[in-house]
């Protein structure tokens, strides 16, 4: 999950690298470091803590030169200290390496290298890499790197340079994302697009077990056996403004308010309200294949997993196929049963989530059809899936996912209409109503977000609590899980989500005056049942926060606090009910003076197990 950025060109590297690191801080912020080359000599600075600490050090002792690497760390091996911060070097200090991933055989390699006289300075797994390269170096950095990588087991996104070859940086990838940015007389490497958006939108996506040799005027990609590989250059459709706060206090708040646009952009051009049809050109599915499917498996992690659970409800209702939703980290290791009559849908904002990617590769070994829902063009999952749908949420910088979630719901909705119409489980009239309803949804989301001050007042009332319970039924049970996750992630309040009926099977024992119970209660077919759940909470002295449909006066007599959402179709309520829960988590976190965009111990893209 660490952030990597590299530069080679004619300009001073330090400000470019520092700006890139700031753009990548959502990937890790335990420590940061930088190495810059000038006239065959290297300068390095490292610091535990946020990038601002490194920036202060560099202000006092700038690094000059036009080739360099920068790194921001999410710690795996070794505590966040100056010593464990990247870059790491060989014994002579000539070869420097930055790394995202885990080297699984680092212990054996370290012991071998120590026996040969190499001296280690850190506790990290990464440090074996520069020492291995040093071992094999005979005047050609690329050859030494290829030999070293042949010994390494595990995942890596790497940036490598040597003071003996000062106008060159190398990148390598296996399981951890790495891109190459192409400029005019300068080139870049990075673990994610925002790091280089200010300089270029032309990128190449490195594949697994590939190495890139980068000079100011030349880029060459090779396989681990040294064979040259042709690479496609793509144009990124994001711009620098999309990766900035735009006047909001935090990226998370900005991204919450961008959700109406994200949903509108994701469905735009994909739904025909006249015909009640979905238009999806990237699925690569034949009608024969669609009719042959007997079940659907959705697999994902975290917030994307919650989106998948709502996708299950949609597809079972309108496609009329059995759907299972699998946590990818568990699914990849289980002896799950599937065959060529199974459609697998994988969901990942980044398209690089390690467990989701591994789960996808596993089912593909069995020649099962896999579709992806991703937000990043060129990502591993998007490239390796048989087909898929890109969400159009734009770059999501806040670690706690918000706009990616509702964009994923929109993509799942479009896929549901597509499959339902193809299988004739969804009539033209039904589909028309569904399309009309979702096209009206962004305006309703906008109206709800404009009333955010109500949620802020609610957060002011409850920000001191240390526990919370979230309850939902049907389409909104996954929203209870997602609401609880958001509160945990950014405010560090312990929260749990449950199906409302499950409260009686244990969680009710926790209820007292000091633990608010958030009940998601739109007026749908489970409404009367969930009112009963609220009565049970109140009978035990509980404090209820209700998310209810606008105009619902009955619930006002039961709940301590009510937040209203606009009316919509039952299957679309998650798009609305999630918004006040995101805002509630945000305002609670702000009031508790938590770092909203960079919550402790977390990183944006989970690219390691």
Q: Tell me the CATH architecture of the largest domain.
A: 4-Layer Sandwich
Topology-level CATH name of the largest domain: Glutamine Phosphoribosylpyrophosphate, subunit 1, domain 1
The helicity comes to 25-40%
| Distance between the ends | 10 Å
Shape: globular
**Sheet having the most strands:** 8 strands, antiparallel
Radius of gyration: 25 Å
Number of helices: 18
SS-derived structural category? alpha/beta
Mean pLDDT value = 92
The low-confidence parts are: none
In the CATH scheme, the class of the largest domain would be Alpha Beta
The strands making up the biggest β-sheet line up spatially as 3-2-4-1-10-9-11-14
* Percent in strands: 15-25%
Number of domains: 3
Q: Count the strands? A: 26
**Quick one: CATH superfamily of the largest domain?**
Aminohydrolase, N-terminal nucleophile (Ntn) domain
Would you write up a description of this structure?
This protein has 609 residues and is of the alpha/beta class. It has three domains: 240 residues, Aminohydrolase, N-terminal nucleophile (Ntn) domain (Glutamine Phosphoribosylpyrophosphate, subunit 1, domain 1); 195 residues, Rossmann fold, CATH 3.40.50; 140 residues, Glucose-6-phosphate isomerase like protein, domain 1 (Rossmann fold, 3-Layer(aba) Sandwich). It contains 18 helices and 26 strands. Helix 7 runs antiparallel to helix 14 and helix 9 packs parallel to helix 13.
């Amino acid at each position: 999950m660490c952030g990597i950025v590299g530069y080679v060109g004619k300009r001073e590297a330090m400000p470019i690298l520092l700006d890139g690191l700031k753009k990548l801080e959502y990937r890790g912020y335990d420590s940061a470091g930088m190495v810059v080359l000038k006239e065959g000599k290297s300068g390095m600075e490292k610091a535990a803590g946020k990038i601002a600490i490194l920036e202060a050090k560099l202000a006092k002792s700038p690094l000059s030169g036009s080739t360099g690497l920068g790194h921001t760390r999410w710690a795996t091996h070794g505590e966040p200290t100056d010593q464990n911060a990247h870059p790491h070097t060989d014994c002579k200090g000539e070869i420097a390496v930055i790394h995202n991933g885990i080297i699984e055989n680092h212990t054996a390699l370290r012991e071998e290298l120590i026996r040969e006289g190499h001296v280690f300075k850190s506790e990290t797994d990464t440090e074996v890499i520069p020492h291995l390269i040093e071992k094999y170096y005979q005047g050609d950095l690329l050859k030494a790197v290829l030999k070293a990588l042949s010994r390494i087991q595990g995942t890596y996104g790497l940036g490598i340079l040597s003071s003996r070859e000062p106008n060159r940086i190398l990148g390598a990838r296996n399981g951890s994302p790495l891109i190459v940015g192409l400029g005019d007389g300068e080139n870049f490497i990075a673990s994610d697009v925002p790091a280089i958006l200010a300089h270029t939108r032309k990128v190449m996506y490195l594949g697994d077990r590939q190495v890139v040799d980068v000079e100011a005027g030349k880029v060459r990609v090779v396989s681990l056996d040294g064979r040259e590989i042709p690479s496609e250059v793509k144009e990124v459709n994001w711009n620098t403004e999309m990766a900035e706060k735009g006047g909001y206090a935090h990226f998370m708040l900005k991204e919450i308010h961008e959700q109406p646009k994200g949903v509108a952009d994701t469905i735009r051009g994909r739904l025909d309200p006249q015909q009640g049809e979905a238009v999806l050109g990237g699925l690569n599915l034949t009608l024969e294949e669609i009719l042959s499917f007997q079940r659907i498996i959705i697999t994902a992690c975290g917030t994307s997993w919650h989106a998948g659970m709502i996708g299950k409800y949609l597809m079972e209702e309108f496609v009329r196929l059995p759907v299972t939703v699998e946590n990818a980290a568990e699914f990849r290791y289980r002896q799950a049963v599937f065959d060529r009559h199974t459609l697998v849908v994988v969901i990942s904002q980044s398209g690089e989530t390690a467990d989701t990617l591994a789960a996808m590769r596993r089912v593909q070994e069995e020649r099962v059809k896999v579709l992806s829902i991703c937000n990043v063009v060129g990502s591993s999952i998007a490239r390796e899936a048989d087909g898929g749908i890109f969400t159009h949420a734009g770059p999501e910088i806040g670690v706690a996912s918000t706009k990616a979630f509702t964009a994923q719901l929109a993509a799942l909705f479009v896929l549901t209409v597509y499959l339902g119409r193809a299988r004739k489980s969804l009539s033209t009239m039904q589909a028309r109503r569904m399309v009309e309803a979702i096209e009206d949804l962004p305006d309703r989301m906008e109206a709800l977000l404009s009333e955010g001050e109500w949620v802020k007042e609610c957060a002011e009332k409850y920000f001191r609590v240390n526990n919370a319970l979230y309850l939902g039924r049907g389409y909104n049970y996954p929203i209870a899980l997602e609401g609880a996750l958001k509160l945990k992630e950014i405010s560090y309040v312990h929260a749990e989500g449950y199906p409302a009926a499950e409260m009686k099977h244990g969680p009710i024992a926790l209820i007292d005056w000091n633990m608010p119970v958030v009940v998601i209660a739109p007026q749908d077919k489970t409404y009367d049942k969930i009112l009963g759940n609220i009565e049970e909470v109140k009978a035990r002295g509980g404090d209820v926060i209700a998310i209810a449909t606008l105009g619902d006066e009955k619930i006002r007599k039961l709940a301590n606090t009510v937040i209203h959402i606009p009316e919509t179709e039952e299957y679309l309520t998650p798009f609305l009910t999630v918004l006040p829960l995101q805002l509630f988590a945000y305002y609670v976190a702000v009031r508790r003076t938590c770092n909203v965009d960079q919550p402790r111990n977390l990183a944006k893209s989970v690219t390691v197990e």
